[in-house]
Amino acid sequence: MQIDLKELKKITILYVEDDDIIRTQTLSLFEKIFKKVYSASNGEEGINLFNEHMQTLDVIVTDLNMPKMSGMEMAEEIHKVSKYIPVIFTTAYTDEEFLLKAISLNIDSYVTKPLKIKELTATILTSVKKYKESRSLYKTTKALANEMLTTRKDYDELKEEYDFLQKEVNFYKFLAEHFIASVKLDKFGMIEKISNQFSNIYKYTIIELKNKPLSAITSNHANLQKKMLEAIKKKEAVGFNEKFITADNQELNFHNILYPLYENKDEYASGYMLYQSLER
Questions:
Q1: Are residues 107 and 122 in the same domain?
Q2: Strands 251-261 and 238-245, how do they pair?
Q3: H or E element in which residue 52 lies
Q4: At a CB cut-off of 8 Å and minimum separation 6, what does 81 contact?
Q5: Is 252 helix (H, G, I), strand (E, B) or coil?
Q6: What CA–CA distances, in Å, run from 115 to 14, 79, 97, 168, 241?
Q7: How far apart are CA 3 and CA 79, in angstroms?
Q8: What is the pLDDT of residue 164?
Q9: Taking 70 as the threshold, does the pLDDT of residue 43 lie above it?
Q10: Distance between CA atoms of 15 and 88, rounded to whole angstroms?
Q11: Domain final residue pick, 86, 104, 131
């Protein structure tokens, strides 16, 4: 994996290590590579720093075996507050019990000692990118879903009907599919999938649109290409207004949110999701 140094400079880290020599050496390198580094010598200090800076932290890198509070115990406490922030362990341990426990805590990855900085920074970059994409998708779908769920009663009825509504991300993905007009595009802007709501609004079936460019249902092809390039450049969702044409030749104007997808192991966009606000 090619490491993007500019992207590393956008990352803020909490680094926890009880060995003074290792911490000092690694910290001196981290401070040159990343935007900001907070360091602690044990889990208790790590928890305190997390509570103080949680709004700006992108990732936590911690040793596993530490006095006062282990890295595993610290991760458990942190995930009670922020269960999706990536945690990467630096450890000499590779036993099965540790790995199973880490997986149950949604631990993102681990790197064995002695540390290889290139390997560690690559792991950090991958983990943070995945975390930011997930967080951006969650915010996007939640904001759009809230346009439909105007009362607490609507929300409660949906929660009772579906078991997986305990998990917020899955809940809003469900809402996005069933209540929000959306289109999945490949990396060239060709239509792969449309949501039920998109089909209801525009009167197209997936058979009619599959493998066709999104520009086939809008007259402003240049604007779509511009927004795709902008989403890739920023690596985040971009919003814009655009008119699309229905199967019966009506022109509808919606607010759109275009979200780049990174579903492959490489760092390149694999496609896009286009979400539409239901308020014109």
A1: yes
A2: antiparallel
A3: helix 43-53
A4: 50, 51, 54
A5: strand
A6: 17, 25, 22, 35, 48
A7: 28
A8: 43
A9: yes
A10: 10
A11: 131
**Global pTM?**
0.48
User: 70 exposed, middle or buried (CB, 10 Å; 0-12, 13-18, 19+)?
Assistant: middle
Quick check: 179 and 173 in contact, CB under 8 A?
Answer: no
Tell me the residue range of the domain where 263 lies: 133-276
CB atoms within 10 A of CB 24: 11
Do residue 140 and residue 267 come from a single domain? yes
Question: Strand, coil or helix: what is 247?
Answer: coil
Using CA atoms, how far residue 128 sits from 11, 92, 123, 193, in Å, is 8, 23, 9, 28
Q: Which residues contact 117 (CB under 8 A, 6 or more apart)?
A: 26, 29
Total of domains in the chain: 2
Same domain, 126 and 194: no
41 burial type by CB count under 10 A (0-12 exposed, 13-18 middle, 19+ buried) = middle
Q: How is residue 78 written in tokens?
A: 């942190």
pLDDT in tens, 55-106: 899 999 998 888 888 888 898 899 888 877 888 888 776 555 565 565 555 5
Answer yes or no: are the C-beta atoms of 35 and 59 closer than 8 Å. Answer: no
The residues facing 37 across adjacent strands are 13
Query: Which residue do the tokens 């936590």 mark?
Result: 60
Beta bridge partners, 64, equal: none
- Residues 158, 260: one domain? yes
Q: Which DSSP string corresponds to 176-242?
A: HHHHSEEEEEETTSBEEEE-HHHHHHH---HHHHTTSBGGGG-S-HHHHHHHHHHHHHHTS-EEEEE
